[in-house]
Amino acid sequence: MRWLVGDVQGCARELDRLLATIRFDPARDELWCLGDIVNRGPDSLAAARLWRDVGGRGVIGNHEVYALLVRSGRWPRKRDTLDRLFAADDGEALLARLRALPPLVYLPGGTGFAEAWAVHAGLHPRWHDLHAVARRLDAGPHDDAWLEHPDVSFATRVRCCTADGERSRFDREPEGCPPPFRPWDEHYRGDARVIHGHWAWRGHYRGPRTIGLDSGCVYGGSLTAWCQEEDRVVQIPSLSA
Ligand SMILES: [Mn+2]
Questions:
Q1: What is the distance in A from the centroid of ligand 1 to the CA of 61?
Q2: 85 to each of 42, 61, 82, 196, how far by Cα in Å?
Q3: Among 160, 155, 116, 162, which residue's Cα sits nearest to residue 133?
Q4: What is the Å distance from ligand 1's center to 180 Cα?
Q5: Sheet-wide strand order for 104-107
Q6: pLDDT (tens digit, 9 = 90+) per residue, 128-162?
Q7: pLDDT at site 240
Q8: Which run of H or of E encompasses 189?
Q9: Cα 112 to ligand 1 centroid, rounded to whole Å
């Protein structure tokens, strides 16, 4: 089975419990993290290692971008929970793995189940041919300049935007998007379903063509996973008080 998991944010114990709950078998199943595997939460190092050890794949999130640009000295360090990841023997290898993640991924359908797209935050209203966009966003070396590219920023950060793709910094409930901004998914006209994270205030939801999987585990919510073949959701409550 192919499992997509919302923002882990260092919640390694919940990820471990999720894998046990769904009886995840690396030989048979796929784990796709929707970005923000690291930072904010209690154990980014354990989360990244667990994701690596089960052959995890995924898309890059804004907290990966932050971790990588802080590590390379390009961005100033803010308050974070990345000390142990940065200091670990395998820290650089884990960071390299996170840097290699694409921003937008196509997940083919099959017999009895539909195709889907995975992205951390969302899609620009002007992105129509998603296969071409995914190739373009992933092209070239994933160097520090790439991490700062406006399209990578958009895919990893958008919540509310205009039809032209102007972003708002608003991060609460979608109903509260300040006009003329709307939740990005209201501009999306594609047929294929898009699965995303990044919007903990919104929580897990199922829209007409989108599914959000960030249910704020790091804030005491839950870790949410979605199985593409079975269109089934599994949630693990936060284990931290
Ligand atoms: Mn995010």
A1: 5
A2: 11, 16, 5, 25
A3: 155
A4: 23
A5: 104-107, 116-119, 193-196, 210-212, 205-206
A6: 999 999 999 999 999 999 999 999 999 999 999 99
A7: 81
A8: none
A9: 31
**In whole angstroms, what is the distance from residue 131 CA to residue 117 CA?**
10
138 Cα to the center of ligand 1, angstroms: 18
Number of domains making up the chain: 1
- Domain housing 227: 2-237
The pair of three-digit structure tokens given for residue 137, joined into one six-digit string: 């966003």
pLDDT above 80 (res 73): yes
Segment 54-67 mean pLDDT: 98
Please, which residues have CB within 8 angstroms of residue 143's CB and are 6 or more apart in sequence?
A: none
Task: Name the DSSP letter for residue 219.
Answer: G
CATH code of the domain covering residue 87: 3.60.21.10
Q: Nearest Cα to 13, choosing from 36, 60, 45, 35?
A: 45
Give pLDDT tens digits for 167-184: 999 999 999 999 999 999
Query: What mean pLDDT is reported for the chain?
Result: 97
Residue 241 has pLDDT above 60, yes or no: no
pTM over 0.85: yes
Question: Mutual orientation of helices 62-71 and 150-157 as an angle, nearest 10°?
Answer: 130
